[in-house]
Hints:
It is a single chain. The protein is an alpha+beta fold. The protein has one domain (about 5-150). The protein has 5 helices and 7 strands. The chain has a 3-stranded antiparallel sheet, with no helix packed on it. α1 crosses α3.
Amino acid sequence: MKGSYCDEFYEACKADFFCSSTGTGSFFDTVADECGTLGDIQSNCKSFEELYGSGEALCEKMWDDSFIYVPTTNFSDPDHNASDAFVWDWPANETNPNAAVLDHVEWPDSCNESEHDAWVEFDLKALEECPNVISDGTTGNVTNATGGYNP
């Protein structure tokens, strides 16, 4: 995974809370029913900063070691730099750059704007349906299960 993506993700979310029933930070270990609540904030949730501490740890732990953090300049393996690492997104109607990184995987050639928008819409709907109540960790503001923001 391109290290700059991981670092940006971590910086943007380090104050946000994440519920992981065993505290590993794995997305696959998240079981909403096991998360106890204390007022409006889940008592056994931790901030991204507590769980991960860095963009590298976030990308490598969140998806159970499915990704390896690749720095912009990889001194330990100069032949494998961020320029040839997996990316999460790319401009609509452009060739999928991941096809060159993982050439043994079948990828779509490109994602047109309506397909791209459909995936974004799907992600937003999934978030709105989440039964958890999550605090932003900084101001006490809470997002409810329907996506409404309660100051």
